[in-house]
Amino acid sequence: MFLSIHAVAQNTAIISGNILDEKNVPIELVNISVPGTHYVTTTNKDGKYQLTVPASKEITIVLSYIGYETVKIITTLQPGEKKEFDKKLNKSANELPDVEITQKSREAANMMHVDPKNVNVIPSISGGVEALIKTMPGVASNNELSSQYSVRGGNYDENLVYVNDIEIYRPFLVRSGQQEGLSFINSDLVSSIQFSSGGFDAKYGDKMSSVLDITYKKPKTFAGSVSGSLLGGAAHLEYGSDSSRFSCLIGVRQKSNQYILSSLDTKGDYKPSFTDIQTYMNYDLSKKWSLSFLGDFARNKYNLVPQTRNTKFGTINDALQLTVYFDGQEVDSYETFQGAVSATCKPNDKLSLKFIASAFQTYEDEAYDIQGQYWLDQLETQLGSSQFGNKVTNLGVGTFLDHARNDLEASVASFEHKGYLNMHKSLLQWGVKYNREIISYNLNEWRLLDSADYSIPHPPDNIGYTNPSQRPNNPLELQDVTIAQNTLSSNRFAGFLQNNWEIGRNTTLIAGVRSSYWDVNHQLICSPRASLVFKPKWKKDFRFRFSSGYYQQPPFFRELIDLNGNLNTDVKAQTSVHFVTGSDYYFKAWNRPFKFTSEIYYKYLDNLNPYEIDDIRIRYLANNNATGYATGIDMRVNGEFVKDAESWASLSIMKTMEKIKGDYFYDYFNAENQLIIPGYTLDNKAVDSVKHNTGWIPRPTDERVNFSLFFQDYIPNYPTYKVHMTLVFGTGLPFGPPNNKLYQATLRMPPYRRVDIGFSKLLKSEKSKISSKNPFYYFKTIWVSVEIFNLLQIENTVSYIWIQDVNSRYYAVPNYLTPRELNVKLIMNF
Fold first, then answer.
1. What is the pLDDT of residue 101?
2. How far is 116 from 743, CA to CA, in rounded Å?
3. What separation in angstroms does the CA of 317 have from each of 219, 750, 804?
4. Cα torsion 251, 254, 260, 265: sign
5. pLDDT at res. 8
6. Rounded to two decimals, what is the model's pTM?
7. How far apart are CA 331 and CA 321, in angstroms?
8. What is the pLDDT of residue 582?
9. DSSP 380
10. Are 205 and 169 in contact, with CB atoms under 8 Å apart?
C-alpha cells in the first residue's frame, strides 16, 4: 500500500489559484481541466481551485466558463511540485454585453442559476426575466402576452418572487395577458437569477410551487443603457466606485403593445400604456453597517374601443365563423407602489444581521360596457364548390352586453429580520416577519345575452314566453351576476430556522422549518423542509440531490373570494408535500462544457382550493374541498452547442389531477332512454337518472408534455452577426363549458406551438475606433436586432368565448393569440 501511494505522488503535481473577471470579482464554477484525462475541477464561490495534475510531462491546462474567453496554460511540472496559476478571464467578444454580472453565488441543492446575460437577447413579446424562466424545465406558459407561468401543475398564485429579499406582488384584477403590462423585474438592473421549481429551502416563503430569487446589481462604475423597439423603450443608469460608499441604480421603462394587439381577431382602437420607474440605492455607513432602498412605481393603463371581430374555427368538415360588431369600450387602470428600506449589520466575518421594512400599495379599477351583435355561420367545406369558404348557413344571431365596475385597493406593510451565522462547516439562518394587510374589493359585473329575441337564461315566465301578458310582471334575468363589497384587515406572522451542514467534502445537508399564523382563519401552520446533496468521487462529474418537505400556502385575499364574489374567511392553507430527487451531470462535448439536469418529483396535494382559469384570470371556489397530486419528470441540457454561445433544451412530462370531495352529478334520460343533452335532444323531459361520482379530474394546469428550446448561433468568422431562437411546444390544457362544473372541464385546447427568432448585429464594440466628435463615441456597444414573433404563423388558443342559442346549445369560439409580427430593437450601452 505504501509503495502504491508513493508511486502516485511521484507522478503528479498540484496546481491552485484564483480566477477573477475583469472587475476583479471571483468567478464561481469555472472549469479547470487537463484535456484527454480525468483531471478536472471547478472554482468555488471565492474563485479558488486546487487540482492534482500529471507530472514529468508537458500538459495543457484549460480554464473555461460560458461567456468568457477560454485560457490555455502549457507547462511541465516536477513530481510533487505545487504551483499557483492566478488568472483573469475576459468576457467573450462573441457575447452580447447586455447585463454585467458583478457577483455570483453557489447554486443551492434545489436552486438553478440562470445567466442574466441572455435576458435582453431572447426573442419574446413579454420580454424580461420571465421569458427565460418560461424555458426552464417544469415551467409552462401558453400565453406570450403574459409574464405569468405555471410550475409543475401549480397556478400563477403559487409562485414566489423576491428582489433583494423583498417579496413582490402582482396586480389582482388583470384578466388577460394583453392587459398585464410590465412585470416588476427590470432586467437592466439584474445581477443574478436563481430559480427553483420545487423542494426549495425553508428560508423562502409559504407558496406551493416555485421561487424566483432576483438580486439587483451593486455597481462599482458609472454605466448605463438605452434601448428602444416597436413595443416600447427603456433606459437605466448605474453609479458606484471602489472608493465611494454610495451606489445607485435607476431604471425607466415604457411599453405599449398597441402594435401587437392590433393584429388580434378583435379589431378596434387599442391604447395600452405601461410605465415603470425603479431605483435601488446602497450606502455603507461604516464597515459594519449599510443601508439600501428599493423603490418602484408602476402605472399600467389599458383602454379598448372594440369595433369588429371575425373568427374562423372548427374542423375541415364543420367550419364555422363568428362575426361580431361592437359598441362601447373598456377602461382599466392599475397603479402600484412598492418601497423597502433595509439595514445590514456585520459585526464580524461570521455574523450578518438584516432588518427590512417594506410597503406595497395598489389601486386597481376595471370598467367596461361592451355590446356585441353576433352572427354565427357555417362555412362551405366542399373543396370543389364555387362557394368554398363562404357562409352557407346561419346558425344563430344574437346580442350580448357585458358590464363591469370593479375596483380594488390593497396595502401591505411588513417588517422583517433575517440573520446569518457562518460556523465551522455549517451556516445557520433565521428570520421573523410581520405583515399588516388592508384590502377593499368592490365587485359589480354581469352579462345579458339575447339570442334571436330570447333572453338567456330563459325560464317560461320571462322575456320570450309565448304569453306576452305575463312579461311586465317578471324581471329580466342576467347571466354571471356578481355584486359584492368586501373588506379585510389582517395580521400575518411568519418565521423560519434553517441550517446548512457540510458532511465531509462531498455531502451537504440543508434542513429547516417554517411557521406562520394568520388572524383571519386563526390557523397556525408548521412546514419542515430538508434537502441532501451528494457528490460521489467518480471519474465523471455527477451530483445527486433529494428534497422533501411541507409547502403550505395560507390564502391571500383572492383565494377567499368565491365564484359569486362572496368572502369566505374560513378558507385554510393549501398543502403540498414535495418529494424531489435529481442529478446534475457535468460533461464536455466538442471540448466545450455542458450540463445535463434531471429531476423526478411527486407532490401530494391536500386542502386544495379548486379554481378555474380564463386567460390569466383565476377564480376560486373558496373552499378546501379537494385533494390531488402532481407527478412528472423534468430534463434539461445546456452548454455551448456553438462555441462561446450558451443554449439549452428542456423537456417536461407531467400529470396533475384532483378529486373534489363529495362532488357528483346526474345523467338524465327521457322516455326513449336517450341521454338528455339540452339543445340536441328533442324530448327533454327526464324520466330516469343515473348518479355519478366525479372521481379524479385534470387540474386546470394539467399540461402533460412541454418542450422548450433556446438556441444561439453566429456566422463563422463574423461573430458580430448573431441569431437567437426560442421554440415552445405544450400539449393542450383542459377546459369546459361555462357552468362552473369543474368535472366537465375535460376537453382539451389545441397544443401551444410557437417559434420566435431574432437576428442581431453589433454596430459598435469597445474596440471600434471612431472620432471623439461622433455622437456614438461615448457608447461602448451598439446592437441592432430584428425579431420575428410566431415565425410559423400558428394560431394558438388562449381561451374560449361561449355562444349559446335559445335551445341552450353552446358553441366554443377560440380566442386566438398573436399572429406573425415583426419587431426592430436597438440597444446602446455606455
1. 31
2. 42
3. 62, 17, 21
4. positive
5. 39
6. 0.83
7. 28
8. 94
9. P
10. no
pLDDT of 54: 87
Percent of the chain that is helix, strand, coil (3-state, to 5): 5, 60, 35
In sequence order, what DSSP letters do the residues of 669-685 get, joined into one string? E-TT-PBP-TTT-S---
Hey, what's the cell of 485? 363589497
The confidence score (pLDDT) of residue 407 equals: 94
- Own/partner contacts of 815-819, CB < 8 Å, gap of 24 or more, are 815/265, 815/615, 816/264, 816/265, 816/311, 817/143, 817/144, 817/145, 817/264, 818/125, 818/144, 818/145, 818/260, 818/263, 818/264, 818/789, 818/790, 819/263, 819/790, 819/793, 819/795
pLDDT in tens, 387-423: 787 888 888 788 889 999 999 999 999 999 999 998 8
The residue type at 210 = S
- Residue 93: partners with Cβ closer than 8 Å, 6 or more residues away: 69, 719, 765, 767
User: How much is the mean pLDDT over the chain?
Assistant: 87
Write the CB contacts of 179 (distance below 8 Å, at least 6 apart in sequence): 272, 300, 302, 332
CA distance 558 to 447: 22
24: helix, strand or coil: coil
Strand, coil or helix: 543: strand
DSSP 131: H
Place of cell 423542509: 529
pLDDT of res. 476: 60
∠ at Cα 191 (100, 212), nearest 5°? 145
Supply the pLDDT for residue 368: 94
Instruction: Give the whole-angstrom CA distance, residue 479 versus residue 270.
Output: 27
* Cα-based distances in Å from 539 to 40, 41, 533, 587, 824: 9, 11, 18, 11, 48
Calpha distance 371→400 (Å, rounded): 6
- 306-342 pLDDT, tens per residue? 999 999 888 878 888 999 999 999 999 999 999 999 9
The type of residue at 593 is P
Is residue 89 a contact partner of residue 71, using CB atoms and an 8 Å limit?
Answer: yes
Three-state DSSP at 157 gives: helix
Catalogue the E-assigned strands of 156-265: 159-163, 166-167, 190-196, 210-216, 223-229, 232-239, 246-255
pLDDT < 50 stretches in the chain? 1-9, 93-107, 452-454, 461-466, 470-472
Distance of CA 82 to CAs 11, 17, 49, 53, Å? Answer: 13, 11, 13, 10
User: Could you identify the residue written with the cell 390564502?
Assistant: 555
CA separation for the pair 816, 583 (Å, rounded): 39
CA-to-CA dists, residue 803 to 106, 176, 808, angstroms: 54, 19, 9
Strand order in the sheet with 40-42: 40-42, 31-33, 58-64, 71-76
- Rounded CA gap, 172 and 363, in Å? 10
Amino acid at 582: G
Q: CB 491: neighbour CB atoms within 10 A? A: 12
Closest of 93, 23, 73, 32 to residue 644, by C-alpha: 93
**CA nearest to 223, candidates 826, 825, 781, 768:** 781
Q: With beta carbons less than 8 A apart as the criterion, state whether 614 and 58 touch.
A: no
Q: How many Å apart are CA 756 and CA 823, to the nearest integer?
A: 11
Is the CB of residue 573 less than 8 Å from the CB of residue 523? yes
CB atoms within 10 A of CB 444: 16
CA trace torsion 197, 201, 202, 206 (10° rounding):
-10
Per the CB < 8 A criterion, the answer to whether 775 and 644 are in contact is no
